[in-house]
Amino acid sequence: AIPIYFELLDHQGSSDAQTQQKILNRILPLLKDYKKVILGDREFCAVALAKWLQEQKNTYFCLRLKKSEYVCQEEDLWLSLEKIGLAPGVSMYLKGVKITKSKGFAGANIACKWKGKYRGWTAEEGWFILTNIESLDEALKSYQKRFGIEEMFRDFKSGGYNLEDTQLTDKRLMTLILLITLAYTQATLSGEIIKEQGLAKYVGRVKEKGRIQRRHSHFYLGLHAHAWVESLQMFAVETQALMNLSRHKCANYRRGIRAANLIASAF
Questions:
Q1: CA–CA dist 53, 32 (Å, integer)
Q2: Would you call 151 helix, strand, or coil by DSSP?
Q3: How many CA atoms lie within 13 A of 58 on its CB side?
Q4: Which residues have C-beta within 8 Å of that of residue 256, sequence separation ≥ 6?
Q5: Which tens digits make up the pLDDT trace of 36-92?
Q6: What is the rounded distance in angstroms from the CA atom of residue 72 to the CA atom of residue 83?
Q7: Torsion angle, CA of 70/72/73/74, rounded to 10 degrees?
Q8: What are phi and psi of 238, to 5 degrees?
Q9: Neighbouring residues of 27: CB distance < 8 A, sequence distance ≥ 6
């Protein structure tokens, strides 16, 4: 995920529907030539936001509902989502239902999914996704992209920049977030280039026993590639001396130097 806009709220907790619409009103015009899918977890005001998004041109949404929300599939028969029969390993697609007794949002689609047991682990609960996408598979595939946003938050904090440890507030916090946004975007785009060039193996080595496939993100590759190139430059004399002792590995060394030069050009 690449951040393009953010605001600092004047209170703790989640934002309200009015704030969400205000922010989206600033973002949607920038993307008017694209098909847009708005993703939101249970902290979003799903029903109120969905009603507003229905009116936006070329805009789709996948907003996660709380299991306590009520739906009406038959006349005057309301059930909470947790009682509609979703279980581990089960998927269902509720089309054109009414949702919530008080706000009365009619004609909504709800994609429901509860992952089955995998390697002894079972998800604690299922997903209930309020959407205007007409396919269960497409709705679930779209919502899964939200986890890229979670990865971005982790990279801002413990996974990369340790933003929380700064304990900054107000204007200084916003200034730092802006700088991190620029650095994060550059690292992510550089990491994408490195992966496309087939150079990821030089930066993102597999560290876990028994794992064959690499799983490093574009951000990780971009962030650590810069440090790898700098270390080669810093210890160039020592590295050359070691290579002189292991001449049978000179071909590998030359490939590594070529890779470092290509990676340096990605920044």
A1: 14
A2: helix
A3: 9
A4: 202, 232
A5: 999 998 888 788 899 899 889 899 999 999 898 888 877 778 889 999 999 999 999
A6: 12
A7: 140
A8: -65, -40
A9: 4, 5
Whole-angstrom distance, CA of residue 129 vs CA of residue 111:
5
Q: How many residues does the chain have?
A: 267
CB–CB of 145/39 below 8 Å?
Answer: yes
What would the two tokens of residue 77 be? Answer: 């028969």
The token duo for 196 is 């496309």
Report pLDDT digits (tens) over 6-17.
888 888 888 888
The tokens describing 2, both together, are 């690449």
d(CA 148, CA 20): 20
Tell me which amino acid residue 161 is: Y
* Number of CB atoms found within 10 A of residue 61's CB: 25
User: 0.85 exceeded by the pTM?
Assistant: no
